[in-house]
């Protein structure tokens, strides 16, 4: 854990005070084994692990308010934590202190069928929201692909977006109301069940994506959309990334269709995952694959659309197009896409899963630069992701024979170059996973000093003592 003279350590007396707020059973203190699961998220490298001094599990905004007042009084850092599925080290307690876990705040509070909204606590697993909404034919459409594990509070904090962002947008599109506790312990309510709101600054959209550094969400109101009645998935095989990506503007401009998903997978991603799942996709001769999901109200509408999409793919150079139009085959195809990250972990836990985003039309040139970067540095960098939004998961893999020291040094060089290439195309270094502690040292490659200073002034206004999730986003606070 880095030294930070500004923060106090949690002693027995402070631990007792925390227990008096949330109850004895809801504080973990001085128990390394029980604290350890809260020391990391899904970022694999040891340098992104840090043990909290205490884990506190509140049940209400009021309890959180009291915890934050205590933390300000003693100058203790507080790190909010959802399910820990993050990929930027956002929930890691860099300076120890308190990890605030929302595992007990896990209720769907109200399904409002007249206003088409749902009110939830931050610790609800995202998929649970959609499971509860199913019987009403409704869904929260901004969910990420980790929906079976992540919490909705974590989705708001990262402004998560998944495979359906091209049609449905990301989490922030659906947040109509937000209750949060400030770093100083004040409980604030923003918005509610209104669909338009320009009353004062748009703080909801400032807090969405603030990575747990500006406020602690305690209640979230989400707008809902109808579950589409029919779905079909096309799997299109191409000889080159260029051909595959040329499909994207064609679908929207010529086909006048907005697919629910346009996912890209390169050859190494598909072959590794098929091996991992013992699956056979027809990837022979294919350098690039697109998974395109179409949804709609009627079967006819969906079949009409997928024929148009299939035609455009063939015109743009696809040499095979397969259609999955029943639940089982749709799931088989999606399962390959969803398991790529896991499949790469089998060979090595040491890898860096990136989520850069570039303008869609730049993807083919970006991919050429990425492959040149891989060859130059002697590493594999397979790539897959949300081609419809230009958001790509370039994944830098540690070569088997390299020791840790060589790997970490080379990874730093590769990431710097990767981010410079991305920014060179007018892209951004993170499209959905956030900066957290993992990317904070690289933020200056992407943002100007003036932008960083403005963001720091916003942080100071929300958190004058810098106790809320310090050590994130900015390299020096
Ligand atoms: C297999 C896999 C697939 C993934 N797919 C996607 C994807 O498609 N799209 C995507 O965007 N991400 C994806 N992710 C990343 C991750 O799941 C998301 O970032 C998710 O939103 C994190 O939620 P969490 O509950 O796990 O949050 P955590 O990892 O626990 O925390 C993330 C951040 O949220 C903050 N936070 C948590 N709760 C609160 C709260 N109540 N108030 C304030 N701050 C809070 C934390 O301090 C931290 O900064 C994926 C991850 C994995 C492992």
Give a short synopsis of this structure:
With 477 residues, the chain is α+β, with helices and mostly antiparallel strands.
Overview of the molecule:
- The protein has 477 residues and is α+β, with helices and mostly antiparallel strands.
- It has 4 domains: 12-103, Uridine Diphospho-n-acetylenolpyruvylglucosamine Reductase, domain 2; 108-226, Uridine Diphospho-n-acetylenolpyruvylglucosamine Reductase, domain 3 (2-Layer Sandwich), CATH 3.30.465.10; 230-339, Alpha-Beta Plaits, CATH 3.30.70; 348-439, Alpha-Beta Plaits (2-Layer Sandwich).
- Helix content is 35%, strand content 19%.
- It has helices at 12-22, 32-35, 61-74, 126-133, 152-158, 165-168, 203-207, 241-253, 267-277, 299-315, 327-338, 340-347, 363-377, 404-424, 443-446, 449-462, and strands at residues 27-29, 54-56, 78-81, 98-101, 108-112, 117-120, 138-139, 175-181, 187-191, 216-223, 225-226, 230-238, 261-266, 288-296, 320-324, 351-353, 356-357, 383-386, 391-397.
- The strands form 4 sheets. Strands 12, 13, 14, 15, 16, 17, 18 and 19 form an 8-stranded antiparallel beta sheet that branches. It has a 5-stranded antiparallel beta sheet with strand order 5-6-10-8-9.
- α8 crosses α10.
- The model has no long low-confidence stretch (mean pLDDT 95).
- The structure holds flavin-adenine dinucleotide.
- Flavin-adenine dinucleotide is lined by residues 41-42, 79-87, 90-91, 102, 122, 144-146, 150-151, 153-155, 157-158, 160-162, 211-212, 216-217, 341, 432-433, 469.
